[in-house]
Specification:
The protein has helices at 2-14, 16-32, 49-60, 65-80, 86-110, 120-148, 156-181, 184-194, 197-214, 220-224, 229-262, 266-314, 316-339, 345-374, 384-402, 420-440, 473-477, 493-504, and strands spanning 380-383, 405-408, 415-418, 447-455, 459-469, 508-511, 516-524, 542-543. The protein has 545 residues and is an alpha+beta fold. The protein folds into 4 domains: 1-182; 187-294; 315-376; 377-543, Heat Shock Protein 90, CATH 3.30.565.10. The longest helix has 49 residues, at 266-314.
Length: 545
């Protein structure tokens, strides 16, 4: 027990510089927000200091109780001046301490320590706790003031509304910013947001709207206050929650400065603060929605990348079949040559073949590894005829076995800047879908055609057509909808993945409504043209049983 207590004391003392800084900042915020105090008390329409205390409570828990109590007592004495004795002021101060401590404990229990309020669920939970918690704290605080005789009974209702508004606005607007600043992840996201050029644009818009709303003086802020929604919605829509909390804090400070400069009365200040809180809440919900959508899109891209990697891993056997078969044959040849005691050129030629095929297999594995690690294509110059030829030749055994006539028209001379392995997987997947459709169809003969042509000088279109059943107009429009059954004509994740791979290469893939199966791929032609390499296989390929 003593060892545990000693460790707790040491841990508390290690945070003493943090606590001293917290107390100083809390008192400074309390003094700075001492606007239109009711009966000279610390009941104002803007109270941001509790937001700082709640963040500290969430981050370090019970160890924050003592510095919070000290900060509140000092703030009460500082702001109220000579009203009552210091001992009398201790009562409402302790009430505030207990209230904020309980609210902080509730928030810490319902929200993760690293929560940044950047999703709608946590945002709603936080807002409900702030609204109910600040109301209960206001009730307890006002009752304590009545008990010690610091608040006239006639001013109880006005004090309750004003204190609730002040706490609600201060916590709602400032706590998200302070919470992000207390988190390493939050600080990094804030910095990325603020460092963008567009941040200066919406901040300038915020200054402009503040001038339009309050620059005319009087009560013009009510007439044009809606203009303040423009910069915060813009910031939230562009930068998510990070942009929303920065813009909300800037606008809140601007509103306070404007109201103090124009000497608005207490009632007007309170009403404007309610509008400011509504503005901040709207901005936060827009920001949280945008942040959620971006995370969902990123998760989807990640899942799609993993699924594509799985598809490519499934194609690994096909890609490695040829080099491994060749390696086995050349190794056998070397063994026979050595058994006969032969050396020289025949053996050297066989060894060169072994080296070439092992390099080919290693290249396949390297590309797959790179894709698993980065998800980015490894681009290189590839000629269309060479690409198509490699894929079609690997499909010939299946065509012969299934009795399918596989025909390839002459390919145009077009150099592509693509990831060869990925694009081979795409073409093989589409041809395999065509095989499945043809085999499942009762119609004869069984045929698959490949053709290509240039679309101007910048793009080339490749068509894969089969004699199987085609797509209806409705099926073609929903072809890439994941809710469509995956077994009908290749509609499923594989087709969606192939389209995503084509899209990463600047192309597009689609299926057309037709009597027979018809898919097309369009890819950009590379600007850097190199002389075509001689092909080791014929460009025209036909397999027929």
């Amino acid at each position: 027990m003593m060892r545990t207590t000693k460790a707790a004391v040491i841990a508390w003392l290690s945070r003493l510089p943090l606590f001293i800084a917290f107390i100083g900042l809390y008192v400074a915020l309390d003094v700075a927000s001492f606007i239109h105090p009711l009966h000279g008390l610390n009941i104002t329409p803007w109270n941001p200091a509790p937001a700082l205390g709640l963040v500290l409570l969430i981050q370090i828990g019970r160890q924050a109780w003592v510095p919070l109590a000290v900060a509140i007592v000092l703030a009460e004495i500082t702001t109220r001046g000579s009203l009552g004795s210091p001992w009398i002021s201790m009562v409402p101060a302790l009430v505030l301490t207990v209230g904020y401590a309980l609210l902080g404990a509730m928030l810490a229990r319902r929200l993760p320590r690293d929560a940044l309020l950047d999703d709608r669920r946590s945002l709603v939970v936080w807002l409900l706790h702030v609204a109910v918690g600040s109301l209960l704290i206001s009730l307890a605080y006002l009752c304590s003031l009545l008990i010690v005789g610091l608040l006239p009974q006639a001013g109880w209702w006005t004090g309750l509304v004003r204190f609730w508004v002040g706490d609600g606005v201060g916590i709602t607007v400032m706590m998200p910013l302070l919470l992000w600043l207390s988190s390493e992840r939050g600080r990094a996201r804030l910095w990325r947001s603020v460092a963008k050029r567009e941040s200066a644009a919406y901040l300038l818009l915020g200054v402009a709207t503040l001038w339009l709303a309050f620059g005319t003086g009087g009560h013009g802020g009510f007439k044009l206050f809606y203009l303040l929604f423009l910069p915060i919605v813009w910031a939230a829509a562009r930068q998510g929650m990070a942009g929303a909390i920065v813009c909300a804090a800037v606008l809140q400070v601007g509103v306070i400065v404007a109201m103090r400069s124009l000497d608005y009365n207490a009632v007007t200040v309170a009403e404007l603060q309610i509008l400011a809180m509504a503005m901040a809440v709207v901005g936060f919900f827009v920001g949280a929605t945008v942040s959620e959508q971006r995370r969902t899109a990123e998760d989807l891209r990640h899942s799609l990348r993993l699924a594509a990697a799985g598809e490519m891993a499934g194609a690994l056997a096909n890609e490695l079949y040829q080099p491994l078969t060749a390696l086995n044959a050349y190794a056998g040849a070397c063994e026979q040559l050595l058994a006969r005691g032969e050396s020289g050129e025949p053996l050297e030629a066989a060894l060169r073949c072994v080296q070439r095929e092992s390099g080919r297999a290693n290249d396949v594995l390297r590309r797959l590894q790179d894709y698993f690690r980065t998800g980015e294509p490894q681009l290189e110059a590839v000629f269309l005829d060479d690409l198509v030829e490699t894929v079609v030749v690997s499909c010939l055994p299946r065509a012969e076995q299934a009795g399918v006539r596989l025909r390839v028209a002459p390919m145009p001379h077009a150099q592509l800047h693509i990831d060869r392995l990925q694009m081979e997987v795409v073409l093989r997947s589409l041809i395999n879908n065509a095989f499945d459709s043809v085999i499942a169809s009762p119609h004869q003969p069984r045929r698959i055609w490949l053709a290509a042509w240039k679309e101007g000088e910048e793009r080339v279109c490749l068509r894969i057509e089969d004699s199987g059943s085609g797509l209806t107009v409705e099926e073609a429009s929903r072809l890439f909808d994941p809710r469509v059954a995956p077994k009908a004509k290749g509609r499923g994740l594989g087709l969606e993945i192939s389209r995503a791979i084509v899209a990463t290469h600047g192309g597009r893939q689609w299926g057309e409504a037709a009597e027979h199966g018809l898919f097309k791929i369009e890819l950009p032609i590379s600007d850097l043209d190199t002389p075509p390499q001689p092909s080791v296989q014929p460009v025209f390929v036909e397999a027929e049983n």
